[in-house]
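# step 3/5: fold
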Amino acid sequence: MRSSRASPLLSTSSSSSTVLHINTHQPPTVSSSSSLTVKSTKRPLTAADVPIEIWSRVFSFLGPSASSAGAPFKFSQVCRRWNDIANDPHAKASFFIRGYGRPLALYHAFKSHRLSLSVEVAALLRKRGAALPRFLVQYVDKEYHRTDRGQKAVSVPLYVFFVQEGFKAYGKDADFKEDDVSRFERLAYAGQTAAATNTPLTEGLEAMNVLLDEYAFVPVKGLGSPMDESVFLISQLDISLIPKLVANGLNLDSVNDQVLERVLWRADITDEILQPYLKHGFKLSPSAIRKGLQMARPATVEVLKKHIDSALLASCASETVVDMMGPIVGRGWSWAPERMDYIINTFGVSEEAIARAIFTHPDSARLPNGSRPEFPATRCYMKANPCPVWRWVLQRYGPHHHFTQACFDDAISRAAADRDLHLLHDEFLESGVQFFPRHVKILACRLLHRDMTANALHLLQALREQVTDSRDAGLLADSERKEWVQALRDEVVDNDEWKHRMRTTQLEGGARGGAYRITRPPHDAIAFLDEANKFYEEMLVPIPTIATVVLRNASMRRPSPPTRSPSMKSWVKRMGTWWKEQVDRGVWGAIENGV
């Protein structure tokens, strides 16, 4: 008879996750090797099992992300529970303090997350030690009284909270109708003027200390001058004020490179000028070193050599060359070939590094026609004025280097009606840069742009003269002639789509862009088409066999074939005519096969 009392081993609650497996073939025995086994099948934890306190802690570590919706964080869009966490005032207060720090938590909450800043959140921030700079209360007052909006930018309860907290913090000095930002800038620029004229500024320095010590002022992004400019001016006034700015919430890393750039660009830079900045928390980061090298001043290099390892300085010099060749370098800097030459010669920058600086994709292989597979080929193409860079490459590497060829391709591809650019085209050609069949397509496209038809016609005429001179001098192979014929046929002569666009449409280059309908083609466009047809007909004629010369005297050396002249002018034609006249006169021997 079975006992009605349940066994303790089988007494488990319904919520337990423990399952008992009993071997029914053998009776259970009390021993260490009992066949009664317990197998745990615990359910893995999910997000729902994590306590809300932990999720609130995780929420405070998220990076700030402003949003136009009610909840400013992506976190709130995951699920309803996380949305509740994101809208919890305590979680918001923790987020602002951890993301921005106590000195500027209230400012950034009001500036960037105003929809999430309620009176309750603001009160929690103050309770947790968030500072209330006087300039913030002034900023809130100005935002509240703005009249250029249909509705108030600041709610009445939030405005009242800031005003009350401001009076509690500053009492009779709560001068909310003034502007501490403007006052700070006046003092900073007055200090710069006094430093330039060697005039003492005792009163201004005292007023600046009061602004920093008593009213917790600090330059912030979005109010007044750029932060790096303000910090640099303060450092010029008194470098010992920098720790006060840091205590008030300044993140020195955010302005480090820009401030040191201004310091290293000084014409009178010495180690005595740089040392105080390093003692007060500034660092010679690789980015700051590259910015300092851009001016290519020997004094700057000598100062950097005292603080930077030679290998790191050489690496930064190579990266500086890359930066200088790029589309954007920095404020107040203009291209100068002397600077580039100085950096390359001083640090021995390799041609591989220069290729990385010049080409958009330096590792890509060149196409069979000699061009680069990407457009633009050079990184400086996107500069406001890349002509000085292309001109420097031509002068340093000559007309036949592949650096120069890539620059020439981009120069004739650039859709800009610029006089300096057109002069650069002629400089390339006069130095001996050669046209190739791939350039026919570039010139055909250039013709379609407004105000560039004359330049496209000029380049086509120069191309025709250059190729014709090479053919007359016997330097053009028949395979090359066929490539020219194919390019002219595909891009111009038999290209009905191009002809239609040439007669009906003109493109606008530059940032505006666009296409415009025209009723009749420009005169230069018709001349371009005529020039291309004549050139095409000339290239259809096969190149004849060059006459062989029998030498009268075996001891006489066979004259070497004429070399290709770097000039595109008629000098090649005149030399070819003179050579034929000498052969006809029998100076070098008799002609076996007439041309």
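# step 4/5: annotate
The CA atoms of residues 338 and 512 lie 34 Å apart.
# step 5/5: archive (pending)
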